[in-house]
Design goal:
Layout: H1 3-13, E1 19-22, E2 26-30, E3 40-44, H2 57-78, E4 82-87, E5 96-102, H3 123-126, H4 135-153
Antiparallel strand pairs: 1-2, 2-3, 3-5, 4-5
Helix pairs in contact: 2-4
Length: about 150
């Protein structure tokens, strides 16, 4: 089974604690781990497509537009220096965007003297238990992101 589909099913069942908001093409969630504070994802609703180019132009445009709104909301909610965007899929072949708020020093001295993409930072550090937000932190993050999403969508 697909991890993204499992997470979407949890959203539909009301059991995904990371869920923020449903949009027309996808679901906004806070990432499980927060080494990159404000890390969020935008999960496409339909598992039938694994490539962005497989969507018809109208759907593709809507998905991209909504993702950029989520990225703007994350930027406004979490105040990074820069946003990074990734649409990968080898691990989970389900369309989903990773939205990383970035700050100087967030990958320490990894990469090229501390400069580089998130995957320059060791995965065991990104996914360390101490990077999981507490229930209170998660609720605050979700509320902040939802507030900014609602402002941008209205």
């Amino acid at each position: 089974m697909c991890l993204i589909c499992d997470r979407i099913e949890m959203i539909k069942n009301g059991t995904n604690p990371y869920f923020v908001k449903e949009l027309e093409t996808g679901y906004v969630v806070i990432g499980d781990n927060q080494h990159f504070y404000g890390y969020s994802l935008f999960l496409y609703k339909n598992h039938d497509y694994t490539e962005l180019f497989q969507l018809d132009m109208e759907e593709r445009t809507k998905f991209m537009k909504e993702m950029s709104i989520v990225a703007e909301a994350a930027s406004r909610a979490f105040h990074p220096e820069k946003m990074n965007y990734e649409l990968l899929g080898m691990g989970d072949a389900h369309l989903h965007w990773h939205l990383y708020p970035r700050r100087k020093g967030d990958i320490e001295d990894y990469g090229h003297n501390g400069i580089g993409p998130v995957w320059c930072y060791p995965m065991e550090k990104i996914y360390a238990d101490e990077c999981r937000p507490s229930t209170e932190e998660l609720e605050t993050m979700k509320a902040n992101l939802l507030k900014e999403l609602d402002q941008l969508l209205n």
